[in-house]
Amino acid sequence: MTDISRRTFIKASVVGGVGLSALGFDLRPAFAAVRQLKIKNAKEYRTICPYCAVGCGTIAYVHGSGGLNTTNTVIHVEGDSDSPINGGTLCPKGASQMQLAISPRLRHQPLLRESGSSEWREVDWDFAMDWFARKFKDSRDASFVERDDEGRTVNRADGIAWVGSATVSNEDAYLITKTMRAMGLSYIDHQARI
Amino acid sequence: MASLAATFGRGAMTNHWKDIKNADVVLVMGANPAENHPCGFKWALEARDNRAAQLITIDPRFTRTSAVADRHMQIRPGSDIAVLGGFIRYAIENDLFHSEYVMAHTNASFVVGEAFGFSDGLFAGFNEAASNYDKTAWDYERASDGFARQDSSLEHSRSVFQLLKKHYERYTPEVVADIAGCTADEFIRMADIVCSTGRADRVGTIMYAVGWTMHTVGSQIIRTAAILQLLLGNIGRPGGGINALRGHANVQGATDHAIVAGLLPGYLKMPVPEQESLSDHLEDSTPKPLAPDTVNYWGNYSKFFVSLMKAWFGKQAQPGNDFCYDYLAKQGEDATWLSIWDKAHKGTLEGFVTLGFNPLLAGPDVPRLLRSMAKLKWKVVIDPFMLDSAEFWKAPGMNPAEIDTEVLYLPSSHWIERDGSFTNSGRWAQWKEKAIDPPLGVRSDTWILSELFWRVKELYQEEGGSYNEPIQHLTWDYLNPRAPTMVELAKEINGYDLGSGRLLDSFGELADDGTTASGNWIYSGSFTEAGNQMQRRGTADPTGLGMHHEWAFSWPANRRILYNRASADAEGRPWDQTRAGIAWTGQQWIGDVPDYGRTTPPDAAGAFIMNEEGVGRLFSTHLADGPFSEHYEPVESPTSNVLHEGVPINPVIKWYDGVRETLANSEDDFPYACTVYRVVEREHFVTSNVPYLVEAMPDFFVEVPEGLAAEKNIANGSQVRVWSKRGEVQGTAIVTKRIKPLRVNGKVVWTVGIPVHWGFVGLTQGSMANLLTPFVGDANTQCPEFKSFLVNLEQA
Questions:
Q1: How far, in Å, CA of B425 to CA of B8, rounded?
Q2: Is residue B402 part of a domain?
């Protein structure tokens, strides 16, 4: 008993139960393991909360081998205690972002709703992107103005509007602007306006 | 944001989240950060707990922020300018402003021309037919050297200081009380706290959000606050500033990168038809200095613009072809949110693409938006979740058989499946790591955008069509052209020296001769040869003020507090040694990254380098509706305008066809003021997919004041119906003490509160708040007046 550590002692007393000694607990070595933290062996990724513009640092814990036939999955997200912004804290939304990250409500299938239809139809990506490009080009061509009434070069496509997004990264936001301005769109706006 | 730029030169939160801990007074108005920005709000609590800062709220409701505040004052929605204007008067009248700061860092001494004036609610230069102002009537008087005339005694009757004093002297505590519905005593107690910061050893900050922007006078509300903070000497200082609390995770970044009508990345301007050549555009866009020795940093506009054209059109962009200037669209008309919907309403918009956005619920006037959407030929919705906007043809009251619009829904990956950076409200661009792969069947936004680009480009190559040189020549030299990486894009944004291929260290290296490229000049320095600065996670804080220069990257130039030169006096000595933003040692500035040049002496450059005056603008010609602010009623108001009955509302707002008829007039029976808001358990609409949050805040509700509920026989928890001239909602009545009746202009005004988070596609359904809101916006930004309109209500 002299070399029994405090930790082993507690473990032993928890798993005791049967075969109590005169001391009231079992001093035989315990074999049950202490319950491990669920994030043990998880890989940590530093990310940012997707909700508001405070920009709380978060850590996503991911399980999975990274093998070709496996899927990595987020098992836990918590505040990044190093962040000078949130110091590890999160609000109810940030604290529940696991349910946003991994959700049965996330969609995996492009859908098309045709004129007058009351339902969606599943389409594949190749069809969807061809459809998108065709509509985009046709409306661009139909609405394109090279010169205005006063003969000035204006080169704009006013028949298409792009709206959003404040929810994508800077890099995607930049690519949206670069691409849509090259297409000649003027009607471009996002959530900041409202 | 328009008015922050109009006053200080840049339209962004001046300070940053952690800096709020350095304040002595925190005024929260037009925001409810305890609810909507909880982890940022903790820095206000830190100030309260550690520095005995006073935390005060002014709001139409007693909010969760009010619950932890030292003092709260209730006002009527839309009366903010009266209250803030009253503070300006109070500070001047009682000599509580920071006079040395005002002399050193504002345009108080500038003299305005004789044409300027203000009477009966209108500034000089008003053109009734065009509903706008001829702003030349607001020009400074020019001295013989072409600069604005100045009078350092501030006694000239047309000095900005004297005009300011005169303009706001009407906002007495009694007038404020009459307009806002508070009492004069309550107002004075608030004014004493706010104006206590008009000294070198005290600093106050203001936190605001969409409670200010969402009015037809939204920009001028913020202008009033900006003027107040300049008078009190609170701009540029740790613990000071005007902190615009932005909504979405990357709303600041998406604005910086210009998914914005009329703008190009880095707040460059979209050319207009009158600017037929590059030189026309540069001439119009490059301001001339208005005072000697001003930095006038926008004088470098051509370098930023040409570098952008090089980033986009590469070798094609040459001096001989105006760097492809003709490739950019020239839009003369307003192309902002309401104008997009107006175009759809008129049936002249064919296609509508939304990415990461639910526009239908965003409003305003959802019945009108539904009618407009049904006139589109096609619509593409790109989002990880199904959205109400994508299923608008299934909205209550819609008949799909009658709607021809074709709709394509594309499931895209979301934040945790991508790397890249988000820029928070405080301008910190923080890189995030990709944690997991998108599920099978899902594509990234980048892939979708690239694929659209390539397929459209190839269609033009195959079959020709309208002018498409910009599409053919757009730079796209990514390793995998169908899927550019975030790192490739981040480097393109930062910019290169085109001769050597070296990543630039800062926008100071940009040139207008085509030798540099940068996708967004304000982000230059974010991804250098030293690596991805946005990914840095150093926690050092040598000043103890929470600046954390080694954590991520803060635009511009990793500066943590904008206009920090104003944290020191004319000689470069900090106003308060315990809270020094920057300090001049005799050889260099120490502390934060200074506004201009580490070794530029104190007398060589002012704090407001983006302004052609070189100082902060108490008087500004940069807004559409006046060089000073003025109280105008909301377009739907329960009262007349106490100050000028003949000009009750903002005289220069834009009216879309058929909108006046959708507003309540005096014959209609809409007696109650109404405001919309958000709750902590929800974020806009996406949280309707999150079970924990839906469980915590399941149902749409209507907040009804106790006395009104008694009058209308509405029991707590019963169903109530609320309608405006535009639409109707129904939900559970929450009978509340949080909103009290106010005595406004001689009569009692009740206010009703409605949260915005519900629609018909989420885990639980509820009325869309924006069924009620009016289709009219701010005179500068066109941000709709969501925050103040009229309704009626009864038991359902």
A1: 17
A2: yes
Provide the number of structural domains found in chain B.
2
Tokens of B264: 């190009």
Quick check: B636 and B255 in contact, CB under 8 A? no
The whole-number pLDDT of residue A28 equals: 67
Which of B463, B485, B502 delimits the end of a domain?
B463
Check CB contact under 8 Å for A73 and B436.
yes
Residue B404 lies in a domain: yes
Mutation target to probe the A interface, by most A beta carbons within 10 A, among B213, B389, B422 is B422
Nearest to A175 among B246, B489, B689 (CB): B489
Cα B202–Cα B207–Cα B208 angle in degrees, nearest 5? 145
Q: Is B605 among the domain residues?
A: no
Give the per-residue pLDDT at A18. Answer: 45
Which of residues B463, B479, B497 is at a domain's end?
A: B463
Among chain B residues, CA nearest to A65: B436
Mutate to test the interface with B, among A109, A172, A181 (most CBs of B within 10 A): A172
| Tens-place pLDDT, residues B62-75 | 999 999 999 999 99
| Antiparallel, parallel or unpaired: β B351-355 and B378-383 | parallel
Test B393 with A118 for CB contact under 8 angstroms. yes
* Joined tokens for residue B655: 């009216």
pLDDT score of A4 more than 70: no
Res B665: pLDDT: 87
Helix/strand/coil percentages in chain A, nearest 5: 30, 25, 50
Q: Which chain B residue's Cα is nearest to A90?
A: B39
Q: What is the pLDDT of residue A1?
A: 40
Percent of chain A scoring above 70 in pLDDT: 82
Query: Which DSSP category does B148 fall into?
Result: B
Q: Residue B448 is part of a domain; what is its CATH number?
A: 3.40.50.740
Residue span of the structural domain in which B693 resides: 660-795
Does B377 reside within a domain?
Answer: yes
Burial annotation A18-55 (CB, 10 A radius, 16+ → b, else e): eeeeeeeebbeebeeeeeeeeeeebeebbbbbbbbbbb
pLDDT of amino acid B1 = 66
**What ranges do the domains of chain A cover?**
1-35, 43-101, 111-193
Asked if A86 lies within 8 A of B39 by C-beta distance, the reply is: yes
Q: Residues of B with CB below 8 A from A169's CB?
A: 250, 253, 415, 418-422, 432, 486
Query: pLDDT per residue over A163-194, tens digit each?
Result: 999 999 999 999 999 999 999 999 999 999 98
Omega before residue B265 within 30° of 0, cis:
no
pLDDT at A10: 45
- Distances from the Cα of B656 to the Cαs of B2, B34, B776, in angstroms? 21, 36, 8
Q: Which residues in chain A are closer than 8 Å to B393, comparing Cβ atoms?
A: 113, 118
Contacts of A144 in chain B (CB under 8 A): 466-467
A54:B448 CB<8 A: no
Interval B610-654: pLDDT, tens: 999 999 999 999 999 999 999 999 999 999 999 999 999 999 999
| Mean pLDDT, rounded, for B702-717 | 98
Do residues B456 and B471 make contact, with C-beta atoms less than 8 angstroms apart? yes
Residues from chain A that touch B384, judged by Cβ atoms under 8 A, are 106-107
Residue A16's pLDDT is 42
DSSP B434-475: --SPPPTT-B-HHHHHHHHHHHHHHHHHHH--S--HHHHHS-
> How far is the alpha carbon of A54 from chain B, nearest alpha carbon, in Å?
6
Nearest one of B639, B669, B673 to B750, comparing CA atoms: B673
The stretch A4-24 carries a mean pLDDT of: 48
A43-101 classified as CATH 2.20.25.90: yes
- pLDDT, tens digit (0-9, with 9 covering 90-100), for B92-144: 999 999 999 999 999 999 999 999 999 999 999 999 999 999 999 999 999 99
Residue with tokens 């997919």: B689
